[in-house]
TrEMBL record:
[4Fe-4S] cluster binds at residues 119, 208, 294. Its cofactor is [4Fe-4S] cluster. InterPro entries: NadA, NadA_sf, Quinolinate_synth_type2. The keyword Iron-sulfur applies. This is Quinolinate synthase. Keywords: 4Fe-4S, Cytoplasm, Iron, Iron-sulfur, Metal-binding, Pyridine nucleotide biosynthesis, Transferase. Its main location: cytoplasm. Binds 1 [4Fe-4S] cluster per subunit. One of its GO terms (molecular function) is metal ion binding. Belongs to the quinolinate synthase family. Type 2 subfamily. GO terms for cellular component: cytosol. It comes from Brevundimonas goettingensis. Pfam families: NadA (PF02445).
Amino acid sequence: MADGMFGLSERTARETAPVWEKVKDHVTPIEWPSQAELIVEINRLKKERDAVILAHNYMTPEIFHGVGDYVGDSLGLAKEAARSNAKVIVQAGVHFMAETSKILSPDKTVLIPDLKAGCSLAEAITGADVRLIKQRYPGLPVVTYVNTTADVKAETDICCTSANAVQVVEWAAKEWGVDKVILIPDEFLARNVAAQTNIGIIAWKGRCIVHERFTGADIAEMRAAYPGAEILAHPECPEDVLSAADFAGSTAAMTDYVMAKKPKQVVLITECSMASNIKGDVPEVNFIGPCNMCPYMKRITLENIRDCLLNMEYEVTVPEEMIAKAALAVQRMIDLPPPAVPARYDMVKAKHHVAVELI
Ligand code: 13P
Ligand code: SF4
């Protein structure tokens, strides 16, 4: 019966009212009724299927606030995949994240709503490439960004995310007793990590198509236009962007920064949904552009999440022998103690003398 807000049934209107409060700046009243119905349907299907939805910070606000059981950065999602008791994991994110969940929870059914939700970094390197790199640099530890396929992880000594890359690189160098490590495949992450440590870095030419497009000139323009605004950037951006920013860190680190400091004006140099999602929790903060859209993340919608749970597809599988090898690398990362202070990329204090060797 249509007697609630927006012509919704009273029950749907009541169940979705807290979500509407968080998304109302980004969803129009015309779009909302169908989204509200989908949110209720998805939340019901989750219970029926004993499923959890792990949603990345780049999901759109109606997914992030409406159906995500756990929301966070790549590291947080991986930890949650290892910890969850649900039978089914729905990855509201991209394919490498679903593979990571499968690697950590091989007995669970891992689903992704669209198999084409890829990643330019994951596509930049293969397991065969890593085998060749290891032949060229014998004895050096291989650290790979989690934004890689399972076959790359299977060739890896330890994984990292942007939240812990410096810590992982320093751990690997100490463990292997070397002063150089291989950190692949993101060239910019590698350069930004190299600026934070005395460990030498061998890097690969992978790029994130979202973050590589930002430039130092963009930041200078934003500073001139909005003198009081705080500028936060993701470490997948080029070094001159990080050097000009006030803070750099993973998507979770950027969220924590805004939630703790609540600056009046913020520029988030990252994927567009980040600002919309945080805004839902801190409406008093004014977010200013620019941002770039990730076409892979944007393949995930409420509609295909509903279909995914209804039809139990698309299942993400990883061959057993690959899981055994890749799990070592991911678990090693998860088992590292959390850093004493939250990871941040301080380009002002950076140790710029360390060179990056690009393969
Ligand atoms: P984090 O959430 O780990 O910062 O990663 C960003 C990203 O681009 C994931 O695809
Ligand atoms: Fe990959 Fe960049 Fe998209 Fe993240 S934002 S999924 S790194 S292309």
